[in-house]
Inverse folding.
């Protein structure tokens, strides 16, 4: 199975700052079947990015995804108060589908 | 728009089974796959398997293969996930999510989640 490792575990930043989240795969993720989800406390995950860099419907352009192969990045250009949450990466190309352990973005 | 509404919270004793339902609306029922994912307290997301709502065919993650059964009722646009032989390690929030045409599509949207608590 493809193991996804997210870093850092927790990111402490202030509103307006830039957030850079990393997701590293144990083997190449085929055709960039890599997604990012946002999960706010007490809520279900919400799709942000699919295909490594395509924003889902309604997602603001301060969220961007990049990377290929085994190294992927989610960038939030300027953090808004509602962006403080947990972010999960996922590979959805090969069964079993797998998720990273998550990165918590907290207010500094 | 597409919506998934799950059944309410459950409390079960060790050794019992639980069935969680996921009612879909807002689109053609037969055109999508449904995934099930669970999240234990303060843990990450764990994929359990997928069901084709048209044919009923399933693909389960190996770690759940012996204990999970996913079914669907096309007349009510509802899919079900049954997990048997419960232990305290199965305490988690269980989510259903639409997976488009199956493997190769991301999960969007998700149901609201169902908390299953296993306790003696």
């Amino acid at each position: 199975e493809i193991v996804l490792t997210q870093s850092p575990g927790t990111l402490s930043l202030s509103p307006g700052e830039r957030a850079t989240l990393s997701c590293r795969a144990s083997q190449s993720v085929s055709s960039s079947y890599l997604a990012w989800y946002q999960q706010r406390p007490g809520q279900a995950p919400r799709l942000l990015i699919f295909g490594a860099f395509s924003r889902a419907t309604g997602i603001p352009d301060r969220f961007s995804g990049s990377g290929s192969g085994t190294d992927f990045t989610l960038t939030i250009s300027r953090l808004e108060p509602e962006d403080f949450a947990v972010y999960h990466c996922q590979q959805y190309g090969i069964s079993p589908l797998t998720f990273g352990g998550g990165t918590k973005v907290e207010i500094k | 728009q597409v919506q998934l509404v799950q059944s309410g919270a459950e409390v079960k004793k060790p050794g019992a089974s639980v069935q969680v339902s996921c009612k879909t609306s807002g689109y053609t029922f037969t055109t999508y796959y449904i995934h099930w994912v669970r999240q234990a307290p303060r843990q990450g997301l764990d994929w359990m398997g997928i069901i084709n709502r048209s044919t009923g065919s399933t693909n389960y993650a190996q770690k759940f293969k012996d204990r999970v059964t996913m079914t669907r009722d096309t007349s009510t646009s509802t899919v079900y996930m049954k997990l048997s032989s419960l232990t305290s390690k199965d305490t988690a929030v269980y989510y259903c999510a639409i997976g488009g045409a199956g493997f190769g599509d991301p999960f969007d949207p998700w149901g609201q989640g169902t908390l299953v608590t296993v306790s003696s």
Summary: Chain A has no helices and eleven strands. The mean pLDDT of chain A is 96. Residues 5 and 24 of chain A are 5 Å apart (CA to CA). The two ends of chain A are 35 Å apart (CA to CA).
